[in-house]
Every structure is written in structure tokens, then in C-alpha cells.
Design a protein that fits this description.
Elements (H helix, E strand, L loop, with lengths): L2 E6 L29 E7 L5 H17 L2 E7 L10 E7 L9 H13 L9 E8 L2 E8 L2 H14 L12 E6 L5 E6 L13 H13 L4 E5 L16 H15 L2 E5 L10 H17 L5 E4 L9 H18 L4 E4 L6 H12 L7 E4 L7 H7 L5 E4 L18 H7 L8 H11 L5 E4 L7 H12 L5 H13 L4 H15 L10 H14 L3 H4 L3 H34 L5 H13 L5 H21 L5 H4 L20 H11 L5 H12 L9 E4 L26 E4 L10 H4 E5 L5 E5 L8 E7 L8 E5 L4 E6 L6 E6 L10 E6 L11 E3 L1 E6 L6
Parallel strand pairs: 2-3, 2-4, 4-6, 8-9, 8-15, 9-10, 10-11, 11-12, 12-13, 13-14
Antiparallel strand pairs: 1-7, 5-6, 5-7, 16-26, 17-18, 18-25, 19-24, 20-23, 20-26, 21-22, 21-24
Helix pairs in contact: 1-3, 4-5, 6-7, 10-17, 11-12, 12-13, 13-14, 14-15, 15-17, 17-18, 17-19, 21-22
InterPro entries: Hex-like_dom2
Organism: Granulicella arctica
Protein name: Beta-hexosaminidase bacterial type N-terminal domain-containing protein
Length: about 800
Amino acid sequence: MKVIFKIAVLGWIAHAVTALGVGFAPRPRLAEELPEPMRFQVSVATVQTPQEQAILQILLEESERRGRVDWAVRPGTVISKDSKEGMIVLAQRGQVEGLLPNELVGTWHTCLAQLHPTDTAEGFSIVTLPWHGRAIHVIAGNDVRGELFGVGWLLRHMSFAGGSVQLPTTIKIFSAPDKQIRGHQIGYRMKNNTYDAWNLTQFEQQIRDLAIFGANTVQLIAPISDDEPVSPLMPAPPLETFLGISQLLAKYGLDCDLYYPEMRKNYSDPAQTEAELKDFEALIKAMPRADALYVPGGDPGHTTPEILFPLLEKEAAIIRKYHPGATVWVSAQGFDAAEYEQFYALLAKRPEWLTGVFFGPQSRDSMETQRRRIPRQYALQFYPDIGHTMHAQFPVPQWDPVFALTEGREPICPRPLGFAHIYQHFEGLHSGFITYSEGVNDDVNKILWTELGWSSQTPAKTILGEYARWFLHREGMQEAQAVQAILGLEANWQGPLQTNREIPRTSALLEDLERHSTLEQIRGNWRWESLLYRGYYDAYVQRKFAREQQVQDAALAALRGEGTSRALVGEAKRTLSVSIVSTEEQRLHDRLFGLAGDLFRDGGLQLSVKLYGASNWERGANLDRVDTPLNDRVWMQQTMDKALTEPTESERLQALKTIVDWQHPVPGAIYDDLGSSAAEPHLVGGLGWSQDPEMYATAIDGIADRTLADGWRLSWLSYAEALYEQPLEMQYTDLNSTLQYRLRVTYAGEDYAVPLTLTAANGVEIHPARLRRSNPEVVEFAVPHGAIMDGTLRLRWTRPAGIGGGGRGRQIAEVWLIPQPPSKH
């Protein structure tokens, strides 16, 4: 991106209002406190396109929503020196001269030349011209979209403090985007955690919000995809809303792209292909605007490349019949190794109907590999998953398993620094992006990607500042606090939950902002409510986990006592049953339920299956996990009951001892709780997240789709895994070479049926390929002679090569290396 600018802002005053009354109730602003409306004149070209009229509508309406302002629109009017109003000129560059006083035309050209503007599509300049004691702000777009993005820039940099409207006093900027495609996906479908509850008015506001920050594309998931045909929350039928969004995008002159997974069972069947093409043509013909077609190879989809390409060629002809100039994109998602070779071979034939390839989740070949193997005539576009935290393209690195258990795969997840790093890591490989999203839980991430797509050099904190000003209505000190709060939410997830000091700080910061909010700042503001919800959730889970772990520790201490097995079990069970919830923990718990209701009412966010109609708990409905157990009490109770069924007292006591000494069954045993970053010292991490954000060559901490209420231990729920052909490895050093060792392994995780082979790094086999016989499964193996070399044992778990899909399933939950007593010879 090329951007040159100078801004001087005078007289902007930070606005903070102290809440009155009890608790955190904001006070409304009194009538006598409201400022007089600011008056502005906007001069525009005499003849405007419908899109330019919509852009002007954005400027007027969005500023009026935030402050007291009166606008006078003067088509084709040269600004008069007698005007008493603030003045804005909004036009394409070639139209500006006709809207300026003659004496300012030369000055404007001189200022513009100093910015060295280019003709890059969607670029714009904003120049402030002093004139008779006033200022004229000239927004000149390279094209119509340039006008839109110039208006967006100006709106983001206005001040609305205290309800007044002020423009920066001096602006001198030319800006053009880095990436041609800067877009986000919208799915009006059951699976979505938000959008199935929205109407067209809400979608129009979302389109405006994204455009104000520089987005030029929205990708719509076809009404029929890998989902239920309708959602009970939908206010209108899927096709009606789908076409309505397409019409809205046409209104604002933004690209409307179609994401169209091929969902029929068998496209080698001519009848199924014909039916698909008929459905496709009917949809395309009905769309008011269609700029591009995206067909994934998988995730969802299941068609091999040699069958998919001929189908896609026919669909390319259909979309261009009704929407000439439409581009056509395909992905290799889900393909196995053999299908990737088919894919590359088909691309080597250079089909003319294909525009390019998009790279998304479940791609076994990295973006670097795909760019290297795909002919250069085809653009490579990014389809990043910005809304999921685990079991995903970009999992949160070393995420505490308790967060994973409670907040789940699709929580409210601002990750500004993480995604800024990810964006810059891949920036040189792609021509643009459309983010994969399942609602508004990733709202901060959407805005971050949008602005980075315009200029990758924009600091994440700068973007967050604009987010705080525009969406959260915070300026001055409150803006800085809001930025720090969002960064704090990201920091809450770094490192072990128990020792994370950012969590209480972030919660306190959000509460302070809430305490000093006006009603206008927070009323109906789902973005603000979502940040509060996440901050409260983190703080609640930290307190609850600490309490339940204390109870578990006390119960284990009871089992270590003296007495009969039945007496020990009785005392341990009594200890587990007594857990006093503090007033603060209860307050946080109750506030979560209140905020969840607010978020559903104000934003359609579905944080509960039962209460708000979410499609599944994993789809953002983590209110349903607020009360889930966070200690091993269910497993302990079941295991204690089983121990009491042993025939003799000594056997009963020994069975209870296995509970107490789970991690260290004998002196010298070495234990790793894989999946818990604080308890896996022997796991070989690999390249690491910063070099390998998708973790192709990095061990991943994950968690199974179970809860502790199912009778699992937390150490069974969490696991480490590696993707595709990358081995999962552990290494032990300084072992006693005179001892024999046994290896105990807990194979546990999700319900994959993947044969795993375990060898030492020097090739000595510990066990051949085997399937997990239960989930979880605890097994033991002798460490063969020769596996330990010079006191070092390096373990390597591998799986069959060539697999496709997400490449997951090599999941190990626990590992013990247990020394054996010396032989008595």
C-alpha cells in the first residue's frame, strides 16, 4: 500500500462521564448537556451513480448516529466563501475541480502532487485546504470505491466526544490498498452462531461497518451447504435473505462472491451432475450481483479433482453467462496426497476458465508448497479461519485445557497480536483474502484483517484504537483503556490459567470502563457486551478452577490418611461434596447469564443451545459450559467405588493408592500430562507457533470432545497431537542406563480410528501400528534394549502417510517412563 499523510488534531477533549447510582448503571446524558449540532456542507458531483448516493448516505447517517450534526448536500455546487458551515468535497478525482472555488484548484493540485498519488483502484486522497478562516476537506477517490474508502477513513478519524462532531483540523493523505481482495464470509445458516438470527437491516449495518474499515468483498455461503436447510431463528427464508444481501452489496458497489460447496453424493453420475447444474443456474440467475465463484475441494465436499474440475468448468460458463467477468476459484481442501497430485496435474494443463486457487483449512500441502507448485498465471488467495481457537487452522498455541473445556472452539476470540503476526507471515504468498467466519465472535479479528489488507504496516494497536473509537464510542483515556482491555483478553489465554495475572487485571479494566460509561456508549452495543462477556468468563473460570482444585487436593489428602478403605473413601467423598462458592464467583456467574441474554437480544449471538437456540454447544454456546466440573471428582468417585469392590482390604487400599499416586506410581517415574503446556516438559515442540502458525511441524495441545462429568480425568481430556506425516515426539535425557524401563501411555482424544506406530528415534520399534481399543486406553510396553542411547530416549509416534482431511488423530494424553527394579541376580 502507498500511504502518505499528515494529520493535526486540535482541541479534541477526552470525554469521560462518571456513572451515578448503584453498581455499574450508566446515566443518560441530560438535555442541557447536549451540544449544539455542528453544520456541514457536502459538495458532490451533479451526476452521481447509485453507489455514490449510497456512500453519501453512509457519511450522513453514520455520523448522525454518533453525534449532533446537520448536513447540507449541494450537488454540483462550488463552495461559497460566505458559507458558515464546515465544508467537505466528495467526488472522484477528475470531478473535484468543478466543485472547488477557482482560487483553490491550483492549491489542491499542488497538495495532491506532494502526495505522489497513483491510479491504483480503490485509492483515495484527503486534503484539507484552508480558506477564509475555514477548512475544506477534499475527499477524492480514484474511482467510486475510492470515495467509499475515503469516507470510511474520515469517519474513523472524526471525534464524537460528548456528542459533538469534529473533524481533524488538517489532513493530507493519499492511500491505496495492498491487496485487491479484502473480504469476509457470511453464512445465513443454522450452523452460524449469529447470522441466522439477523434480518436485512442488521446485514446492511454489518456491510457498512466492514466497508468503513476497507473491506470490498462479502462472500455468501450458498443457501444449501453442509447444514440444515433452515434455522428456527431465521426471520426470513434462506433464499430470500441470501438474495437480499446480494442486493445490498450491489447497492454499495461491493463484490458479492458465492461460496458453493458441491454437496451431492456422486458427480460421476450424469443425473446428479445435471441436477446440480440446474440448481446452480437457478441460483446464479436470481442473484442481483455475483462477482466470483468459490468451490472448495473439501471441508465441505468430497469430490476428487478429476471429477470436480469438469463440473466446475460448466459452472464457470453458467456464472459468466449471467454475470460476465465473474472470477472462478477452487481449493484443494480435504484432498489426500494422491488427490493433490491430480490437482496439480490438472492445473498444469492451465485451464482458461479458472482464475485462481484459494488456500484454506484442512490443506495438507502448505501455502508455500501450493504457491510453488501452482502455475504463476493463477492467483493464490487466502481463506483463513479467524473464528476458531482449537481443532482449527490456527489454534491458540498452548491454550490451557480448562479454557478449551469451558470456552470451547468458537468463543469470543479477539487475537489482535496473534493474527497480525499470522497475516504478516503469509502476506507475500497471496493476492487477497476472504476470511472464514461463523458469526460475530471474531469481530475484532475481522476488522484487524480488513485494515491489514489495506496496509500490512498498520500496527495492531492503531487498528484497535480505531475499533474502540468507532464501535465502542471511546476517546482519549477511555480509548487507550479499551485498547488495553482487548489486548488483555488475548493475554488472558497465554500461559497456565492458574498463574495468569492478566485475567484479574483485564476484568478490572473492563469493569472500570463499564462504571464510567454513558448510556449512549453501551446501550444495545453487542460489541461492547461481547468484550465484557469474555472478560467475565475468563475471570469466572479462573476463580472456579482454583476453588475446585483446592477441593480435589483436599480429597486426595484425605485418601492419604490413616484408616480403613471405607473410612478413607467416606472422608474423601465428604470433602468433594463441600465446595463454597464465593460471593464474587457467584456475581461473575450471574453476570454471564445476564450478558448472554443481552448479546442475543442486541446482536443475535447464541451463547446457549437451550436458552438461545444455538445449533450445538461447540458453535459458540459456551454459556452451557459455565457449570461443568473443573476437577476430577466424578472420576475419583467412580474409581473409589470400584476400589471398594476389591475382595481384600489390602487390595482396596492399593486401588485407592493408585488414585493418590496417579502421576508417580513408583519412585523415579517420569510423567507428562500432554496437552497441558505446564506439564509436558519432555514433549518435542517442533518449529513453534511463531515460525509455523498452522503447526504443520509443531506439536499441538488439544482437548477431546468430552467433559469431566463423563468420568474422564482432566489429564485424559487434554492431549498432544501432530498433523499429517509430522511425527509426535518426546525426548528424555540423563536416564540411568543400568535400569530397565517400561512405558505407560494413555491413548485418548477425539474419536479417530488412526493406527499409530511407536518407535525410538534410532529405529527400535516399541509397538507396531495399532488402533486404540477404547477411549481412553491406558497401555504399557517394555522399552526394548537398545532404544536408550547414551542416556537418551527419543520416542516417535507416526501414522500411515498420505492422509487428507485435517490430518488430525495422532493424539496422546499421558506418558509415563517408569524405571523397573534392578534384577535380583
